[in-house]
Amino acid sequence: MITPSYVRTMAAYNSEMNRRLYAAASRLSDEERRRDRGAFWHSLHGTLVHILWGDGQWMSRFDGWERLRTAIRESDHMIVGWDELRAARVEADRKIEAWAGKVDAAWLNSDMTWFSGAANREVTAPNRLLVTHFFNHQTHHRGQAHALITAAGEKTDDTDLFLVQPQMIA
Question: Which of the following CATH numbers is that of domain 4-169: 3.40.50.1000, 1.20.120.450, 3.20.20.20, 3.30.930.10?
Fold first, then answer.
């Protein structure tokens, strides 16, 4: 069962993992971050931009963020500059954690209806399922980003939730 506590834990984990990945990525050159390494979103930069794009799409539904007009197929090019991307990521994580602090059981147990561009139709689904998808999307693509960072010869700190979670609380 997805609970408000789960949402807050995952939002904090998301922020911490982004701090770790962006710190490692910052130690790479811009050329390395943009190198096409055969990932779905091509490069580390493209993958990180796509994660931010996905967060923006879902948060426009969950918390009233301004809806991004960039199409999914262009999402890896939405932000070009590294400093701009880093700043946008920090701000998004701050806002996601603030939203998570407001989530309650009633909202999680209600449904959302929206037009899905991916499905090309109106969709209705339980918020608890959509929140699970939201966090899974982040984790999935952060795993790709981690692999791209490793392939570029850089390391990150631990990424396992059970190892990171005590550090988040401390």
Answer: 1.20.120.450
